[in-house]
Design goal:
It is an enzyme of class 2 (transferase). This protein is of the alpha/beta class. It is 48% helix and 14% strand. Strand 20 and strand 21 form a beta hairpin. The two termini are 52 Å apart.
């Protein structure tokens, strides 16, 4: 889980930084063809929300008087000064509140110029237009000095109009905060000039901006003041940084239009009900090419006169419907970080399903899709419901949620796949190791079975021959014993008698050992190798192992028997130092014949190892044999250790296998048979340790 948290957190932070760069880096990212513009995304979302939630409405206080296509056909020319003067004279009779003349009249265009100038001077509530740019200027006539508004339009990068200037770029605000508008003639936008005069007549006190306080404050009677903050650019979307106040246009419903009259209708019908209204005069014909793109989905091309009417409507209704408010730049960056973080939290929540045993890929992606959709819907609802009071640019946040959801999900799935693959590889490795061990065990077992099967076939003949030899030896011993006894019956010297008595004692020992070997041969060779072939031998294995045996005395007796057969062939100076450590002096349940075979076999090997090392003529060599008996709570250990010639370390695994021997005349069956007896009959162990010497340890349960 910690690894997933780190992965999701790292991806979310990196993605947030990329989104921040994308949002704030239009200046250089816009030149990369494959990278779409974040501001364009925000603009499209703004157009969508305006079409759904725009609070603009058709204001009945505004009337359009336009030079239409029908007027163009009737008068067959651009509207002349004389025609415009006639229209103004006709409208004056209806006593409108304001008249906005949207035609440029800086030079005479036709007959009637002088008359038009006279009409303008006689119409104090008429506002004209002017234009000034880096390339050219269109200055108003003297009759309109101090009564004009600038017509500069603000186009976004997609050539759509969404904002409107309040002041032209050339306006230099007065430095003195206390300077009243009466002492300074502000150059305002055409729509703001009309709205300014209208609101002033309604008793609204307007404080215009200064360098120290670049805001517009409108103090309405009987309500809180309205503040228009500087909108220097597209609220952080870097469309085009502006140095003057602008405002977001609150568009009217796209299927509704202002009350409109043509020039011909005004002159012929002399319309009524225009008293106290704002009348805008301008072009409403395609012939004059005064068309601009708007966010409207239907009929996006609108005349400049319509745009002026909508802007005037927005401004005179600002007390009831303020412009959409936005947030500082740093808040928008935190807004992106917040929603990417919410998306990451949802992914981490869903990722907990990966730890379930019944985990399924469809379940993970299904739950993740549901949570991410809920997050997107939540953001969409906030974006939708907060407008038009607040406009929160959320396009980049939408991209962040979707991108983070997809990338983190794929990263977690990849991480899970890698973990599963590693786990599978580990399991396969363990299984392979176990399989190899099992194969090796089976090979060893098969090899042992083959050896046992071969020996099982051979052992009856071997036993028969060995028993015959034992019988011949016994007969020879009996004959020798009788011969000695015969000689004893005759007269002989005392030395001879003593010698013959020693020979009789030796012959009796030989008979006893010969009988013991014969019994062991009869009991164990067939059962060990043919226990599954000869049923009569299996019965011998059930002989009693409940005899009480004193281990100390028994081990001493075995040593005497083992060393006796070497007595006649050992060198004169060969003396073994026997060190006994019998911590346990009690008895154990067992079978004497079986245990005697085990211990004599081990003692024989120890004796031969000591003798072989003695023959190497090492200086100051002292043969040492250690016999130890130690009792533990659940078992007894009998150890036989010598400092003889020793066993090679690489032979420890082979030493207990049948037929393996290091002796020239050995059969390789002694240790194998002894270990089989310990394991099969006593459930004990026979182990070899080469530290400090050659040490065989028999462990028997007690």
């Amino acid at each position: 889980m910690n690894q997933r948290f780190s992965t999701v957190g790292m991806i979310s932070l990196i993605l947030t930084c990329i989104l921040w760069t994308w949002k704030g880096g239009e200046d250089y990212l816009s030149h990369v063809p494959v990278i779409p513009s974040s501001s364009r995304l925000e603009l499209k979302l703004y157009d969508w929300i305006v079409s759904l939630r725009g609070s603009g409405k058709i204001d009945s206080r505004i009337v359009l008087v336009g030079f239409t296509s029908s007027d163009f056909q009737k008068f067959n020319s651009y509207p002349s000064d004389h025609l415009i003067a006639d229209v103004i004279e006709t409208l004056k009779q209806e006593k409108p509140k304001l008249i906005g003349l949207g035609f440029w009249r800086h030079t005479p265009t036709s007959e009637g110029w002088e008359r038009l100038q006279t009409v303008i001077k006689q119409t104090p509530n008429l506002i004209g237009v002017e234009y000034e740019s880096e390339r050219f200027n269109i200055n108003p006539p003297k009759s309109l000095e101090g009564k004009t508004g600038d017509t500069t339009l603000l186009l976004d990068q997609d050539k759509l109009i969404r904002r409107q200037y309040l002041y032209p770029l050339r306006e230099q605000f007065p430095a003195n905060f206390q300077l009243k508008p009466d002492n300074y003639n502000y150059t305002r936008n055409f729509a703001w000039e009309l709205a300014y005069h209208y609101l002033s007549e309604q008793g609204v006190k307007i404080q215009e901006p200064t360098p120290e306080n670049p805001r517009i404050i409108l103090d309405f009677p009987n309500q809180k003041p309205v503040v228009i903050e500087p909108l220097k650019d597209w609220e952080g979307e870097r469309v085009k940084t502006q140095d003057r106040l602008t405002f977001l246009i609150n568009w009217t419903p796209q299927n509704q239009y202002f009350e409109t009259y043509s020039f011909q209708k005004i002159l012929e019908n002399n319309p009524k009900n225009l008293e106290g209204k704002i009348i805008l005069i301008g072009s409403l014909t395609l012939a004059l090419k005064d068309l601009y793109l708007t966010p409207y989905e239907k009929n996006p091309l609108r005349f400049g006169l319509e745009l002026d009417a909508i802007s005037v409507s927005n401004l005179i209704n600002i007390g009831e419907n303020p412009f959409p408010q936005t947030f500082p730049e740093w808040v928008k960056y935190l807004w992106i970080l917040f929603w990417v973080g919410v998306s990451a939290a949802g992914i981490l929540l869903v990722s907990s399903t990966l730890d379930q045993p019944e985990f399924k890929l469809k379940k993970f992606f299904g739950l993740n899709l549901i949570i991410q959709l809920h997050i997107l819907i939540s953001l969409g609802l906030i974006y939708y419901l907060s407008f038009p009071t607040y406009w929160i640019p959320s396009g980049v946040a939408f991209v962040g949620i979707v991108g983070n959801g997809v990338i983190c999900s794929l990263a977690i799935l990849f991480q899970k796949t890698v973990q599963e693959q590693q786990k599978r590889l580990e399991q396969e490795k363990k299984y392979s190791q176990k399989l190899e061990e099992e194969i090796q065990r089976i090979k060893t077992l098969l090899l042992a079975q083959e050896r046992l099967a071969f020996l099982g076939k051979l052992s009856p003949a071997i036993r028969h021959e060995m028993l015959n030899n034992f019988e011949l030896i016994s007969q020879e011993v009996y004959l020798s014993q009788e011969l000695i006894e015969t000689q004893l019956s005759e007269q002989a010297s005392s030395d001879m008698i003593h010698f013959l008595e020693d020979q009789i004692e030796s012959l009796e020992t030989i008979l006893e050992i010969n009988g013991l070997n014969s019994e062991i041969l009869k009991k164990y060779i067939p059962p060990i190798f043919l226990d599954y072939l000869e049923s009569d031998n299996a019965e011998n294995l059930s002989d009693s192992i409940n005899q009480d045996i004193n281990l100390g005395d028994f081990l001493d007796d075995c040593w005497c028997r083992a060393s006796y057969k070497f007595r006649f062939n050992e060198p004169e100076n060969f003396k073994i130092r026997v060190i006994k450590s019998y911590q346990y002096q009690g008895t154990i349940k067992g079978n004497e014949d079986e245990l005697r075979y085990i211990f004599i076999n081990l003692l024989d090997n120890a004796y031969e190892a000591l003798l072989l090392k003695f023959w190497l003529n090492e200086e100051n060599y002292q043969p040492i044999l250690r016999l130890e008996i130690t009792k533990y709570p659940n078992y007894i250990q009998i150890s036989i250790e010598d400092n003889g010639i020793g066993i090679e370390a690489n032979q420890t695994k082979e030493i207990f296998k049948p037929f393996f021997t290091t002796k020239q005349r050995g059969s390789g069956l002694g240790l194998s048979l002894a270990r089989d007896i310990v394991i099969s009959r006593y459930q004990g162990t026979l182990e070899l340790n080469l530290e400090g010497g050659t040490r065989f340890t028999v462990t028997l349960p007690c």
